[in-house]
Amino acid sequence: MLSRDELREQLVQTRIAGDVATSRENNLDHYSSLANGDAYYALGLTFEQPWSYRDILALMAKSAGVVADPSHRWGQDTIDPELTIDAIDAMAERIAAVLARPGARVMFATGHPTGLLAVHLPLAALCVAKGARLLTPGEGWTYAGSGFGRPRRIRYLQDVAMLDDKGALVHTHDADPMRHMLDELAGDLPDLVIADHGWAGAAGEAGAPTVAFADCNDPGLFVGEAEGKIDVVVPLDDNVLPRYYAPLTERLVTRVSQALPV
Hints:
single chain; 40% helix
């Protein structure tokens, strides 16, 4: 496992954190849209209090490390790698606390099969190795998703839920698939959901203990964390080359293992 300093450097070099690919314009547009009540950017969550554009920007600076200055409106934006590592360690502690219970029931889902699936798969394998039961409700459920009106279907790869679109695994922000999965469980919520995008938001909204990964242009999950509906959100670029996530994943898996009783 890389040291903290080595991991911080790797995160910056691969642009998982540091100067990220997501532009400042894109970030601010999403913050404004969420503040204006656009449900798409809430990612399946509802909020207990109104969040203004300035409130959301301040939260994202604190939780993800974007530039705090509201006059910075164009060009580069950032994720603080220290916040990424801190959140990875906090997520590891939360996962370990659940896995310490005999027969823990865990559910995985990702809206980024071209990126974050590389993190979910080793973590899911670890959970199985430590005695957890991975839940797979809703397999094959089809709905008219937001992907150009074409039907999308829940598909599992090694017990990680995703969506497919006529055979192709697809990117999604939708919350409806997770809502269906939880409905199928008929109120018997999992002990932990590990997810991103609308999968995570819908789980947190339903009251399921949830930890999540989120990019700096996905403010809804960070607001959900601030209001206590999501336990931990890890800030990171959520769609770099899958192999770039390997050191981060190794730290997460190792920290979970170290936190479990022998």
